[in-house]
Amino acid sequence: IMTQANFFLFFHQVSPAELRTSVTLFNGQTFAWKKHEDYFLGVIDDAVIGLKETEQDTLACCFNKSIKPERLQSRLRQYFQLDVELRPLYKQWSDSDERLGAIAKAIPGLRVIQQDPTECVVSFLCSSNNNIARIRQMLEKLRKEFGEHLCDVGPHKMHEFPEIHRLSNAQESHLRELGFGYRAKFVVESCKQIEDKGGSEWLRSLRKNQSTSEVRTALEQLHGVGRKVADCAMLFCMDKPQVVPVDTHVWNIACRDFDNSLKEAKSLTPKIHNHVNELFVSRYGLYAGWAHSLLFAAELPEFTCRLPKPLQVAMQEFAKSEKEAKKRSVAEKLAKKGSKMMKAKSTKSTTMKAKQPKAVSKKKKQRK
Questions:
Q1: For strand 47-53 and strand 39-44, is the pairing parallel, antiparallel, or unpaired?
Q2: How many CB atoms lie within 10 A of CB 365?
Q3: Catalytic: 320?
Q4: What CA–CA distance (Å, rounded) separates 19 from 68?
Q5: Catalytic residue among 52, 228, 309, 326, which?
Q6: Are residues 17 and 107 in contact, defined by beta-carbon separation less than 8 angstroms?
Q7: pLDDT exceeding 90 applies to what percent of the chain?
Q8: How many C-beta neighbours within 10 Å does residue 148 have?
Q9: What is the pLDDT of residues 106-148, one digit of tens each?
Q10: How far apart (Å, rounded) are the C-alpha atoms in residues 276 and 283?
């Protein structure tokens, strides 16, 4: 097995400013990569790929098949969307946002990749009420259970991501045994729907549709796919760089950095999603979704430590204030709920008393 550095190929002198795999592959947009020795290991299509960072470049190799260097480089350029120049985008974002400028200096080379649509949609179906580490574990089990084994690299057994028909024929109970919980139904049912619509080719056809609203509507017809999952798919696998997926983390960023009045929103309605997306696009332009990924990465502990100390402190203070505000909100809701229950109980008691027959006095009985 090729694990020595001299087997890695230079990747056309891609500078650190244009690509750093250490941040691009571990910021929550993909869950397919792992650290092995001094490089990163993952699967693209049916190729087991190793990626090694140097101070000047990124090196690459394929472990399970013979691929001509130019073909490997071409596939990786497509996967990392290297035709999009990152440095001008970083400059544009930094010029329009001092805070993001500080983040950009601390976290260079983070870009949005172009994932396989099937893998991307299934991955984010698993993201509901979940964290990155657990999503990665769940998808690793899915590959081992339903994907084709490609090769072993050290202790790692590398599998291709399962084809749609294998997942659509999976038993929901089986996925629950693997730890998918209620998400098991999402995966099985949505894959059945995708297969009925034409399989992976149907998903790829959505990439060609330039209408974000039409693509979003098509994706939201799938079982378990809501606004956030649909927007993640559009950004990470369907060439819609202007789309900003909004969850509570991104909503908090928008409240802090864009519009404090968003705190008044009681839930993430479609109107709130649209408003947040518009705020990002107005500040960062067509590649607002890419800028969002950089801001999102800065909130992750493994990258927060890279930021300037004053920015770290400001983020910690904001997080603390948000946590306290959430506690107050929960306490107020519970108090309000308790007050309503007491009032309802009191009203019920009064009603019951009113319905009871009045007692007849002994004197009245004697007269009768």
A1: antiparallel
A2: 8
A3: no
A4: 22
A5: 228
A6: no
A7: 71
A8: 13
A9: 999 999 999 999 999 999 999 988 999 999 999 999 999 999 9
A10: 11
